[in-house]
Amino acid sequence: MDDRVLIGVSPFQAGGELRGFVVSGRWPDTTKEWAQFLVLAVRVASMPGLLGTSTVFGVREELPDDPEPGSIGLVVAEGPVLGEMAVTPDRFALHQPSALFMLHPPSETTPTLPECVGAASGCVLLPGLPYLGLEHRAAWVEAESDGTVTSLVSKIGLDPISDPDTAVLAMLLAS
Question: Is 73 within a domain?
Answer without folding.
Answer: yes
